[in-house]
Amino acid sequence: MKNNLKKYRKDKGFTQEGFAELLGVSRQTVISVESGRYVPSTVLSLKMAEFLNQKVEDLFELESSDFEK
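Given the sequence above, the corresponding structure tokens read:
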């Protein structure tokens, strides 16, 4: 899964730490999501979208490899 979280977070002026505090997660969680090592839950994805004033589908998108088994 590809994500644009870092771009939108920076555009809003949030640091990783500040964004993590708003979301109620650790900074490491934000780092892991941004790097693509962790796929957030639906609830966390919706919170991220809400704080960034974006749609979830603007933050995250499937890649063709996500459909391969």
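Helices lie at 5-11, 16-23, 27-34, 42-52, 56-59. Try to locate this feature in the token string yourself.
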